[in-house]
Task: inverse folding
């Protein structure tokens, strides 16, 4: 059983990491994932184990307040705003503490000392309590411990102003940091602001505004110009244009008329539409997209996991280093007070928050930015895999080609092309096969069905019809052989339909799937991006597949494959760099799951695509794939920048502190500044 909660006061990345470790250690818990950016915790466990889970969640997230408020996933995350008032109070406490320090500096003696102590407690009583509580639980090393030791040490050494300043500046820095994180969360949420506010339900000729969840399948809704489409459905009345940029990333409007489908999350631009609902809100496109993006933080990248493990080891190590810095030099002739002061400064700058916040925030920003471009990435781990792709394997039909067959060649052996096409159209007039539809579309003029008096179909071969008193055969070479016609082998890129009239061969038509307009450009961009292997796996004839492969510049084409063959061929490509498979998400689910990263194209509204794939391209454009790789690589670059920047600055200031050049003021400013700059840099991944 899997449940998700929102946690209002999950404002500390280290707390999030500790909570995740504590939950995963509980008996009966299969997996637990805490998303600091999304403020959620998702747990898979036996149903009777959730009482213990809830106790752990509350104990780990309550901090000073024991009544941590936790909300079930059914509630709208936009209704929760965290402890905004509490954060503001922390800021005012810090300002009050600074005012008391200023007053204490003017008053000597016992009164001044009392003011310093009051200022100290006002600035950081919550930090001291949290540190004490965690020590009692055996969890010593965190940012509360670091700040408590550094500030208490300064107070005991008589550096009262610095001791209070450490806590006050740390609280102010935390306030700015929380504001920056909240702003980035809001910015990311605004990228996916496709949730409909209401639906105009049509009942008994009256229109009433209701929640989208209250509209049942097959009920009618009205969508006015300027409104969001609240539910998936079919247009029954009206003509309009839809802005689908929130779903596909493409700004070009899509025209709809009666009989066309509309997807929730689109915006109606012009005319009024009456729509019959085809999916309940929970199964609508907008709900699936929001679920996917909101849960993307649960699948962590290796970089995120490394930073979490690093922070867990890093804090005890810097505490040990600070202890050695305070003790060893005085043993060899140094001044005790000076080296203790340096050690305390060393502790202040060592807080790992900049790293632990900025890296997951970078990935979440990248996922949000990709979503805005119509690219849904299910988690940071898949983004990391996208960034290091070495090979991309494609399905053909619906992926590199349109999946729409058309007549590309008419080759009469006698008579005219018009006569050959007419014979083929008469033969195919009673069929609904895609090949028949393409022949009829090429013929253009409607076929008079009264001309056809008899139809016989031979499975896997073709058709024989009696038209205008003449026998017409249309089908493959085996059908022609069955009536005594031996044909030479024809190498054509497509499906060949041979036509005979009264036993006399008349010629053939070539039916082929058209390559998507952006497919060749996409292959060129993938090669420029360093993808060395571009492979196509298809069940189509070898000649047709190789012709498409040559036109697109693919490095390998494997044709005439059964669905099961695709898995084995894909497995033969695994083992080197990362391999992606790109398919339609319906017939290719086994291959999508077997690849390092499965990518579904044209996934709008497709349950199979969203279920089977790790990445969903929300339209049929192959050019989205190199864009997805560029976004993934840029996100990874920003994450590495934050790691290098945060570690570099911290190590430099720690060294300066150890040498006595940097004091506590510089250390606090450096710590806050690094965190703020790393957060701002992380938000660049949204662009």
Result:
């Amino acid at each position: 059983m899997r449940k998700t909660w929102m946690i209002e006061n999950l404002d500390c990345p280290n707390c999030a990491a500790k909570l995740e470790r504590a939950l995963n250690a509980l008996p009966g818990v299969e997996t637990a994932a805490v998303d600091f950016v999304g403020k959620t915790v998702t747990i898979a466990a036996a149903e009777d184990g959730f009482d213990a889970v809830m106790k752990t969640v509350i104990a780990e997230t309550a901090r000073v307040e024991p009544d941590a408020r936790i909300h079930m996933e059914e509630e709208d995350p936009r209704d929760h705003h965290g402890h905004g008032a509490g954060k503001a109070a922390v800021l005012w406490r810090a300002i009050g503490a600074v005012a008391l320090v200023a007053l204490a500096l003017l008053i000597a003696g016992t009164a001044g000392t009392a003011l310093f102590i009051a200022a100290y407690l006002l600035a950081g009583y919550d930090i001291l309590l949290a540190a004490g509580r965690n020590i009692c639980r055996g969890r010593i090393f965190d940012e509360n411990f670091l700040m408590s030791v550094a500030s208490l040490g300064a107070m005991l050494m008589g550096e009262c102003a610095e001791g209070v300043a450490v806590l006050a500046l740390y609280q102010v820095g935390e306030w700015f940091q929380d504001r920056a994180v909240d702003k980035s969360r809001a910015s990311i949420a605004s990228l996916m602001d496709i949730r409909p506010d209401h639906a105009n339900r049509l009942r008994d000729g009256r229109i009433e505004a209701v929640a989208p969840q209250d509209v049942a399948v097959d009920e009618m809704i009205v969508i006015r110009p300027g409104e969001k489409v609240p539910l998936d459905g079919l247009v029954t009345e009206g003509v309009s244009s839809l802005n689908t940029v929130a779903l596909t990333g493409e700004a070009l409007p899509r025209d709809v008329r009666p009989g066309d489908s509309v997807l929730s999350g689109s915006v109606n631009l012009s005319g009024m539409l009456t729509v019959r609902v085809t999916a309940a809100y929970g199964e609508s496109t907008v709900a699936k997209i929001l679920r996917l993006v909101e849960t993307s933080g649960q699948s962590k990248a290796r970089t995120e996991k490394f930073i979490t493990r690093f922070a867990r080891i890093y804090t005890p190590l810097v505490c040990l280093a600070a202890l050695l810095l305070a003790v060893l030099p005085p043993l060899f002739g140094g001044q005790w007070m000076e080296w203790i002061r340096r050690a305390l400064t060393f502790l202040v700058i060592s807080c790992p928050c900049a790293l632990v916040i900025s890296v997951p925030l970078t990935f979440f920003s990248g996922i949000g930015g990709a979503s805005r471009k119509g690219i849904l990435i299910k988690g940071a781990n898949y983004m990391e895999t996208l960034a290091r792709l070495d090979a991309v394997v494609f399905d053909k039909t619906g992926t590199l080609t349109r999946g729409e067959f058309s007549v590309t060649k008419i080759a009469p052996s006698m008579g005219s092309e018009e006569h050959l096409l007419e014979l083929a159209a008469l033969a195919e007039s009673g069929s609904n096969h895609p090949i028949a539809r393409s022949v009829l579309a090429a013929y253009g003029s409607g076929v008079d069905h009264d001309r056809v008096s008899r139809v016989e179909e031979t499975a896997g071969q073709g058709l024989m019809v009696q038209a205008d008193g003449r026998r017409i055969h249309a089908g493959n070479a085996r059908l022609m052989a069955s009536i005594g016609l031996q044909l030479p082998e024809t190498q054509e890129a497509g499906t060949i339909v041979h036509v005979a009239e009264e036993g006399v061969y008349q010629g053939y038509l070539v039916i082929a799937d058209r390559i998507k307009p952006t497919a060749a450009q996409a292959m060129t961009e993938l090669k420029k991006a360093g993808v060395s292997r571009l492979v196509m796996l298809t069940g189509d004839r070898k000649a047709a597949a190789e012709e498409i492969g040559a036109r697109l510049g693919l490095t390998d084409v494997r044709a005439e494959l059964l669905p099961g063959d695709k898995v084995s061929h894909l497995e033969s490509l695994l083992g080197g760099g990362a391999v992606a498979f790109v398919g339609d998400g319906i017939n290719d689910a086994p291959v999508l799951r077997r690849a390092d990263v499965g990518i579904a194209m044209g996934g709008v509204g497709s349950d199979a695509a969203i279920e089977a794939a790790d990445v969903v391209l929300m339209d049929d454009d192959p050019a989205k794939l190199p864009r997805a790789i560029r976004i993934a690589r840029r996100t990874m670059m920003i994450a590495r920048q934050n790691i290098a920047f945060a570690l570099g600055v911290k190590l430099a200031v720690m060294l300066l502190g150890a040498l006595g050049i940097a004091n506590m003021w510089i250390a606090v400013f450096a710590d806050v500044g690094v965190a703020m700059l790393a957060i701002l840099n992380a938000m660049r991944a949204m662009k």
